[in-house]
Amino acid sequence: MSPYIALSDDIKKLLRRHINKEQLHIIIIFGKNKKQPTNSLSKKDFDFFSQFPFVSIIYVPNLHAKYYGNDSESVVTSMNLLESSINKNIEFGCYFSHKSNIPSLVPEDANVYDYAHRIVEHKANNVIYIKRPCFTYDANNYNRNKYIGSYILYNQYNDRGEYENKVQFTDFPPQLEYADNNNKYIYCGFCIRCCKEIHFDINQPYCPKCKTDWEKDEEKELRYEEYDHFTGEPSCGNTCKKYPILKRNFKKANDIFGPFELNKNDNY
Ligand SMILES: [Zn+2]
Question: Global pTM?
Answer without folding.
Answer: 0.81
